[in-house]
Amino acid sequence: MEAIKDKTAYLWEGDDPSEAKASTYGDLYRQVNAFAAALKKKGGQKGDRVIIYLPMIIELPVAMLACARIGAIHSVVFGGFSAEAIANRIQDCGARVVITSDGGFRSGKPVALKKTWMRR
């Protein structure tokens, strides 16, 4: 019998079907714990509000679960929003932390997330 930690937790597929990755519950557990530890090391704590501004990458659900692990409240912001819309969401919720990446791809086209967010 296959142990739960070895079963597939989720499948991720990028814009290109050759970009696919399966993550087991064991992998997910390790990734979430590592991300939660990094959040705590940077000062994140229970009750903090966190904005997650990431493309549709495998780290997105990891970031969400890491926030839940430390008791932080997260809000996922769509990558197509303008710098002003992102800034409004950060200010409205009083976010102490923003999780983002330099960029990603949407429909095969590059999207500069960090550059957009930093324009505010």
Explain what the structure shows.
The chain has 120 residues and is an alpha/beta fold. It has a single domain, classed as Rossmann fold (3-Layer(aba) Sandwich), CATH 3.40.50.980. Helix content is 38%, strand content 25%. It is built from four helices and seven strands, in the order ββαβαβαβββα. A three-stranded parallel sheet has the order 4-3-5, with helices on both faces.
Summed up, what is this model?
This protein has 120 residues and is of the alpha/beta class.
Task: Kindly give the count of domains.
Answer: 1
CATH-derived architecture: 3-Layer(aba) Sandwich
Strand line-up in the sheet with most strands = 4-3-5
Average of the residue pLDDT scores: 86
Please report the distance between the alpha carbons of the first and last residues: 53 Å
Helix content: 25-40%
Within the CATH hierarchy, at the fold level, what is the topology? Rossmann fold
- The stretches of 5 or more residues where confidence is low (pLDDT under 50) are none
Class, according to the CATH hierarchy? Alpha Beta
Anisotropy-based shape: flat
Q: How much of the sequence is in beta strands?
A: 25-35%
Radius of gyration, in Å, reads: 15 Å
> How would a textbook summarize the main sheet?
3 strands, parallel
Order of helices and strands: EEHEHEHEEEH
Helix count equals 4
Q: Give the class from helix and strand content and strand pairing.
A: alpha/beta
Tell me the number of strands. Answer: 7
